[in-house]
């Protein structure tokens, strides 16, 4: 092909294979995050990424394999941010630094929710083991690298699940019309509320017409 319009989403621009792969994974992360595993198809991912559905299948194979790569990418980005927070020289307590890093990942649309969708597929024979491995990777980081005790680790993980729940519920949609929602979000995100409010933008599949 003389142009990579269908394979890169950028008209007239040729992309390296690894860049095309990352481009699709980023779009897939948003789509899986917004619509879940069962509500997503490779065709929807392809349209969201601006590529052809056969191309997605050629690069990733099945939807299951694509989702597993989305989960691994999300975990890799999560651990990278956690380790950066751990290495940071700051007067801010470590738990707060790691927590802020976690909330900051919400700006990477779909990343946290893709992980959550993986966590609810524990019974799936392929996805379940990988989701459990990823969850325990985070727990072991908290225990062995961050030095949290078991109770501190549990509280951190519980707080993360609450954050994911509010993101999944799109609580920010009611921010301007419900005082209790504003109170809850301000208490949960005292330093990163702007990140959550930015998520009010429509899902990528709607922006690109992929769900029409």
Oligomerization category of the chains in this entry:
single chain
CATH class: Mainly Alpha
Biggest sheet features? none
Number of domains: 1
The succession of helices and strands, N to C, reads HHHHHHHHHHHH
Mean pLDDT: 89
Count every helix, treating DSSP H or I runs of 4 or more residues as helices: 12
The CATH homologous superfamily is named Tetracycline Repressor, domain 2
What portion of the residues fall into strands of 2 or more residues?
Answer: under 5%
Topology, number of strands: 0
Q: Give the N-terminus to C-terminus distance in angstroms.
A: 28 Å
CATH level-3 fold name: Tetracycline Repressor, domain 2
Question: Which value, in Å, is the CA radius of gyration?
Answer: 18 Å
Overall geometry comes to globular
Q: Which architecture name does CATH use?
A: Orthogonal Bundle
Q: From the helix content, strand content and strand pairing, which structural class follows?
A: mainly alpha
Proportion of residues in helical segments: 55-70%
Q: Which regions contain 5 or more consecutive residues with pLDDT less than 50?
A: 1-6, 8-12
Describe this structure in words.
With 212 residues, the protein is mainly alpha-helical. The protein has one domain (5-207): Tetracycline Repressor, domain 2 (Orthogonal Bundle). 67% of the residues lie in helices and 0% in strands. The protein is built from twelve helices and no strands.
